[in-house]
Amino acid sequence: MPGRNPREAVDAFIEPLKDTLSCLARAKITLSPGGWGETVKVHALTVNDDRPVRLQRLRLNRPGLMLRVGMQYEIVRTAGPDRPPWRVTTHAYAYELQTVSGELVLSYHWHPGSAVSTPHTHLGRTQLAPDAVLSQKAHHPTGRVSLESVVRACITEYNVRPLRDDWDKTLALREGDFQLYRSWS
């Protein structure tokens, strides 16, 4: 998301994430020191100080779910005279669905510079039988995954109760922002 200065660029990056998270949780976004405007450095973004957020299920007899969100980002100069001079670019993400006991259900990761630098997902042990062919350590390839698509899946696929009546419209708007400003698919 672009801005006239580094702080404005970070605000433009954070606001859609706040809107997205507000569809299913009351959550606080925290940035690493200098994360509001220090350039030439990769910053960390966490939700609830890197603690998972408990999600409300539509059916009370279903096991509870929690969502953990973390990202790394950098504030960079943009090229071209028709754009504001600053924007934020994502360097890594981890979106994890967990049971209330902390057991992994499903996670989406992208962490360039590691052994597996492409976007991927991990299946939690809760979805694998003891003699399963798949391993929870396996890196199942994906394209780039937005937080908006993970939140939408929580609501539509995992029966999480949305906290906003306009969740579908909000996620569509913010997913559009993500697609417009992403630098790769």
Task: Tell me briefly what this model is.
The chain has 185 residues and is α+β, with helices and mostly antiparallel strands. The chain has helices at residues 6-21, 147-156, 167-181, and strands spanning 2-3, 29-31, 42-47, 53-55, 65-77, 86-99, 104-110, 120-123, 140-141. Strands 1, 2, 3, 4, 5, 6, 7, 8 and 9 form a nine-stranded antiparallel beta sheet that branches.
Describe it.
Strand 6 (86-99) and strand 7 form a beta hairpin. Strands 1, 2, 3, 4, 5, 6, 7, 8 and 9 form a nine-stranded antiparallel sheet that branches. Helix 1 runs antiparallel to helix 3 (167-181). This protein has helices at residues 6-21, 147-156, 167-181; strands spanning 2-3, 29-31, 42-47, 53-55, 65-77, 86-99, 104-110, 120-123, 140-141. The chain has 185 residues and is of the alpha+beta class. The chain is globular and about 55 Å long. The protein contains three helices and nine strands; from the N terminus they run E-H-E-E-E-E-E-E-E-E-H-H.
Write the layout of secondary structure elements.
Blueprint (H helix, E strand, L loop, with lengths): L1 E2 L2 H16 L7 E3 L10 E6 L5 E3 L9 E13 L8 E14 L4 E7 L9 E4 L16 E2 L5 H10 L10 H15 L4
Antiparallel strand pairs: 1-6, 2-3, 3-5, 4-5, 5-6, 6-7, 7-8, 8-9
Helix pairs in contact: 1-3, 2-3
Rg from alpha-carbon coordinates: 17 Å
Provide mean pLDDT, rounded: 87
* Largest sheet geometry: 9 strands, antiparallel
DSSP strand count:
9
> What is the overall number of helices?
3
% residues in beta strands: 25-35%
Shape: globular
